[in-house]
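@channel sequence for tomorrow's demo:
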Amino acid sequence: MPEQQIQSTHWHARQAEEALLELDSTAAGLTHEQAAQRLLRYGPNRLDEAKPASVWQRVLRHLNNVLLYVLIAAALVTGLMGHWVDTFVIIAVVVLNVAIGFVQEGKAEKALQAIRHLLAPHAVVLRDGRQQDIDAADLVPGDVVLLASGDSLPADVRLLQARNLRIDEAALTGESVPVDKQVDAVADDAAIGDRICMGYAGTLVTQGQARAVVVATGAATEIGRIGRMLEAVEQGTTPLLRKMQDFGRILTLFILATGGLLFLFGTLVRGMGAGEMFMAAVGLSVAAIPEGLPAIMTITLAIGVQRMAARNAVIRRLPAVEALGSVTVICSDKTGTLTRNEMTVQEVICAGQSLDVEGAGYAPTGSLLLHGSAVDAAALAAHSPAAAALVEAAALCNDASLHEKEQHWVLAGDPTEGALLTLAMKAGLSPTVVQVDRPRLDVIPFESEHRFMATLHACEAGSEVLVKGAPERILAMCSQQLEADGVERALDEAHWHNRIEAQARAGRRVLAFARCRLGVGKQDLEHADVASGLTLLGLVGI
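structure tokens (generated this afternoon):
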């Protein structure tokens, strides 16, 4: 059996050199011999999978109900009395209850096992000082991994080097915005969302590159800890089931007591035969059992489960529907916890003009609406040159990529940039074609202290810089604005601040876009090139 890893929660408080030393590793990674020994010691980098309950165990679990016990007893008695119609009806109710619960539990178990697929299938590591692509299951503590944009982190890691690194940790922390990472240690008591020198299994690199050392694998990772917590959840019961169990116990005792008293009264007081009174007491007891009550409960809950399933919600057990219906308050720390972390541009704002954007998510279904009418790329260029220039900038000043996989659009990169690519496709542009026609010459990557990204592209008049970023920052860099008719005029800052506030009140994230022309032969982009004199193209509300 592999040795249980000792999960440390304080790697973020250690300097990178200390982490390497404690893990008996180097910046060049482990040797093959070290990796093989640690793989035997710690086991493969995969989450433990509990042995599933057998079919009979699951069936018996759904039979564990007081009223069902009463119904089964009633079915036996009615069968002995020759009332076969009643017997079959009661048995059908029991079978229906167990079957629906069995099927729903099976669907839920498959959904819960999906957490085990969050670990990356492959990883790029340094072994014997050479870069190698290996199965992520073979990673061990002390391995040095290389990370790039679009990679899913294969294990919990301590960053050694990072360049413009941003990681989407929504799956772990619920934070919808990617986190900027650095290598410096943080406070020992820092919360998981503030451990900016760490990366965790199952999260996604949206930007930049990094080199990191593996500090925990498999069940010792943070995502593995969550998996263990799910397995350790204690079974509870719902208010309705508690009431039904209490009612079932009281009713059963009352029926048995009444039947016993009737039998004693008939035989001792009235002097009737014991056999005759026994059948009378049994008949009264069977008649007193509410056979339809479990059936009504099961059918009602089943209808609720089907309605939830139609909304893509998986219910593990039927009574959970009733518990969900009893909820009066939902407490949440942030919206990212309850969303898919997909962003969508809903409005494009240019000088004197606004366009609504249809659709949701990354699928390019929907249109840009100008005065309520859909516009394609040609119509957009003719009727709103500023919006056309903004949409093109959204496709070019962008490091993300979107592709369709099994009828779903999959994003590699930052969610905000994915929303901008979708906007371009809705406007009739192909980001891939635009990027080929207008190749990127240089880039100033987004950094939190600058709050903007800029790219340099070749154009007919020489070269052009496209900039996107926080609206307040971009406005400070602009002196002109592009009007809807394509004419440049002096910047009206008060107007744009009002538009930004309106978007914020609507609950939208706002980005601004700008551009400027540089001389012929310009191949390098410096911060001084975009410090001032830009022309504002407009805003997008996401």
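heads up for whoever presents: The mean pLDDT is 83.
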